[in-house]
């Protein structure tokens, strides 16, 4: 039997994805990311998300990270578990990265609810991680690492 190759076209080819545009605007306003608000995911956006995460870890937990936008051992060591019921900017950053990686959290709003938990579980399952719905060090590393 011959297998068929399916070419997936971008959903928002001409105007960009409106949710990604909203994420870009938020990263620009919260972290001065200087991203083009075009609704297209580019490497600079991942760097901005990691810078946002590092900024929030420094603000909330006083961990003293260099805000360089690079995922490394110090950033991995500094992350805290994010789980259902968590609210805030770190949750927003996790939701944004899940959405970008095609795991829709059913809202990029900073509130870790059922949709985010389902997206995390699907991401963990697809990446052969322990499926617990909690974004811990291993899930963070898979989500933000290279």
UniProtKB/TrEMBL annotation:
Name of the protein in its database record: Peptidoglycan binding-like domain-containing protein
Family matches, as InterPro entries: Peptidoglycan-bd-like, PGBD-like_sf, PGBDSf
Species, as recorded: Peribacillus asahii
A Pfam match: PG_binding_1
Residue stretches making up the Peptidoglycan binding-like domain: 92-143
């Amino acid at each position: 039997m011959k297998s068929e190759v399916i070419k997936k076209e971008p959903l928002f080819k001409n105007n960009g994805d409106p949710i990604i545009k909203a994420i870009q605007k938020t990263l620009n306003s919260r972290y001065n990311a200087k991203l083009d608000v075009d609704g297209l995911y580019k490497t600079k956006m991942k760097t901005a998300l990691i810078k946002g995460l590092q900024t929030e870890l420094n603000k909330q937990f006083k961990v003293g990270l260099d805000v360089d936008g690079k995922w490394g051992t110090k950033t991995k060591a500094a992350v805290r578990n994010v789980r259902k019921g968590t609210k805030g900017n770190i949750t927003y950053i996790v939701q944004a990265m899940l959405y970008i990686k095609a795991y829709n959290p059913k809202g990029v709003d900073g509130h870790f609810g059922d949709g985010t938990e389902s997206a995390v579980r699907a991401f963990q399952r697809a990446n052969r991680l322990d499926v617990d719905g909690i974004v811990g060090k291993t899930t963070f590393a898979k989500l933000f690492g290279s």
